[in-house]
Amino acid sequence: MSLLDLIAAADERGLVASGIACLDRCLPQPGEGADPDPLRPLWAGCAGGEAWPDRLAQARQALDGAEEAQTQTQTRIRQLLAHAPADRAAPGLREWADACSLLALEVHLGQDATPGARVDLLRRCREGDPAGAGPLVAGEVRRQIRILEMLADSGTGAAGLRQVRDASAEGQRVLRAATARRARGRGPGGE
Could you report how far apart the first and last alpha carbons of the chain are, in Å? Predict the structure, then answer.
């Protein structure tokens, strides 16, 4: 199944967890003294829908309270959290999860050494045709597919969410390493 098919077929828990995982991977390395895991409340509210509104408010507050300079990605994460439905059964949940997926792919494309035609490439990748995608984008598409498949297969258990968090943390490390390499390559006065 393509990434878009999996998002279309995901249940409410799968949409919430996959959306959080995408946003979590996009967070830049926290500055000194900053919360290293500002989306932790969302992960804690993933299993049960009744805790979701409070956990969403906590995550919004954690990101709003960050004193460090905001990157464009952090601003977009904040916007996505601001538009996340407080009611997990709301019709907008699927659109929110889809927007989180797209943001993660855009962030990976921005760090990929071989970025292609942005909109068309990401659309094709999400439809199941990763031809021409660089390694970061192709890896992120595979990761999102794997996470949605894990969520579909794991039922409602906490073990499935732990596996998703582990897969997401691995992706976060990969993206942060690519970002650091790219920053070192630019250096002062670089591109």
Answer: 38
d(CA 14, CA 157): 12
Q: Is the dihedral of CA 97, 41, 76, 191 positive or negative?
A: negative
Tokens describing residue 133 = 């995608």
* Whole-number Cα distances in Å, 105 to 8, 39, 68, 99: 17, 19, 24, 10
Buried b (16+ CB within 10 A) or exposed e, 142-157: ebbbebbebbbebeee
User: For residue 191, what pLDDT is reported?
Assistant: 41
112 phi and psi angles, rounded to 5 deg? -70, 145
What is the C-alpha to C-alpha distance for residues 81 and 27, in angstroms, rounded to an integer? 13
Kindly tell me if the per-residue pLDDT of 137 is higher than 70: yes
Please report, to the nearest 10 degrees, the dihedral formed by the alpha carbons of residues 108, 110, 115, 118 taken in order.
90
pTM of the model: 0.89
The answer to whether 19 touches 88, Cβ cutoff 8 Å, is no
pLDDT tens, residue by residue, 60-104: 988 876 666 578 888 899 999 999 998 888 789 999 999 999 999
